[in-house]
Design goal:
This protein is an alpha+beta fold and 103 residues long. The chain is built from three helices and four strands; from the N terminus they run ααββββα. Strands 1-4 form a two-stranded antiparallel sheet. The chain has a two-stranded antiparallel ribbon with strand order 2-3.
């Protein structure tokens, strides 16, 4: 293959990946069979971190790991909702210190 052909091939692959939104990278297309991955996500220690004085708001729809497949691909996510009376800068400083240690 000549250099022009190689550059055209690489440009086509790059444009195709960009336009697809990298959706080819998702390992799941539906939530079927994701229960073990959702359970593992829900157990990550980093999700239990919260600044001193923050109070968890439990039992809501935004508490725990879920799988969503409404976009053509399945996405795993986990939420924890806390009430915090401190300043946002204090919360950001806390997470900046604690998250690297939690992995």
């Amino acid at each position: 293959m000549n250099m022009i052909g190689l550059w055209l091939l690489l440009a086509t692959v790059l444009v195709g990946a960009t336009l697809s939104g990298c959706s080819f990278l998702s390992p799941f297309t539906t939530c079927e069979g994701t229960a073990p991955a959702v359970a593992a996500l829900d157990e990550l220690p980093a999700l239990d971190l919260h600044p001193p004085g923050a109070r968890p708001v439990g039992g809501g729809a935004a508490d725990g790991a879920t799988c969503t497949d409404d976009s053509g691909d399945a996405w795993l996510r986990s939420d924890r909702l806390y009430v915090y009376d401190g300043r946002a800068a204090e919360a950001l400083a806390y997470y900046t210190r604690q998250l690297p240690a939690a992995g």
